[in-house]
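Give me the fold.
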Amino acid sequence: MIYTFIPALFPLFFCVGSTGESKNKQLLKRFYHEVYKNWKMETADQLLSPDFVSHDWPAGQKGPQAFRNYYKVFKNAIPDASYEVMDMIADGDRVAVRWVMYGTYRASFPGIDIPPAGQKVELKGVAIYRVENEMLVERWVISDLYELLVKLQN
């Protein structure tokens, strides 16, 4: 009798505590698909907290409008930019996303002193998001800018 009882509880044991993580992962999947694949900024307006902070931006910039401003300049430089999610891991209120961005460098981007000449680009990175009340409130990004700059010069 105990053998049928333990397997019956086994799936329940692993579901406890993972509901929030699963919801957070779904939120990020939607965000990457709609915003970074289809460039629907209305989704960013819906999913980013008014206090959203990306720790790779200059101090004081926050919220959906700062996000829109940054990606307007970004999309001007790489108009065909598209992100592919390689991995996504959730733990509590954090979701880590390993991604690759592909595109063509068509216009200058602040901080990059290499003239645009239609170079194909590939930028790899990891972003960690903090989710609160089903909204994105913080982000930390690490990307391989060295590899990007090397490719732009060739």
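Helices lie at 2-15, 19-37, 41-47, 63-77, 145-153.
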